Amino acid sequence: MQWLSTLADIVGIASATFALRAWLKARQLRAKLLDRLFACTQGYSRDAWE
User: What is the pTM assigned to this prediction?
Assistant: First the structure.
């Protein structure tokens, strides 16, 4: 049953990698949307909202 443990490890690593990439993409999208939201607003930056 060593192969089952190895398979579980591979699935766990793949899941963690997918979750990390999704989280990073969500952060990038959030920053992009906030930049667009405040692009025409003077005196404000997205840093003020974090």
Answer: 0.62
pLDDT tens readout for residues 1-50: 898 999 999 999 999 999 999 999 999 999 988 888 877 665 555 555 55
- Which residues have C-beta within 8 Å of that of residue 45, sequence separation ≥ 6? 38
Question: How many domains are contained in the chain?
Answer: 1
What is the distance between the alpha carbons of residues 37 and 48, in angstroms, rounded to a whole number?
13
The verdict on residue 48 lying in a domain is yes
Question: Measured at the alpha carbon of residue 14, what is the angle toward residues 6 and 21, in degrees to the nearest 5?
Answer: 160
Compute φ and ψ for 8, nearest 5 degrees.
Answer: -65, -40
